[in-house]
Specification:
By secondary structure, the chain is α+β, with helices and mostly antiparallel strands. The chain has helices spanning 39-45, 49-52, 89-92; strands spanning 16-19, 25-32, 56-61, 67-71, 75-77, 93-97, 100-103. Strand 6 and strand 7 (100-103) form a beta hairpin.
Length: 108
Amino acid sequence: MSSNKRRTPSFRVGQIVHHKRFGYRGVIVDAHTDFEGSQDLSKRVEPSAADRRRPWYQILVHNRAIETYEAESNLEEDPSKEPVNHPYVPVFFNEFEDGQYRVGGMEN
């Protein structure tokens, strides 16, 4: 298999993950098969050539009103199965069950 081949993301939208290095928890709201960040973001996070070709995720961070964009190599499944406290959770999800959010947002 070629190292340039795109990989299928291991995590799903709605899944709660844990950042291996920084220790925060969050919920995935989007997944990409490779790095799709801006040139400015690329300069700030400096992804390796290998990480650029691996899945990346947009994450709402627990107990902080911020979003992050992280490489799959930095993440692991969060074993707590506890919900994430973030103001945008109801925008993306409408249900939390068995440690995972269900896709759907607020109804107008």
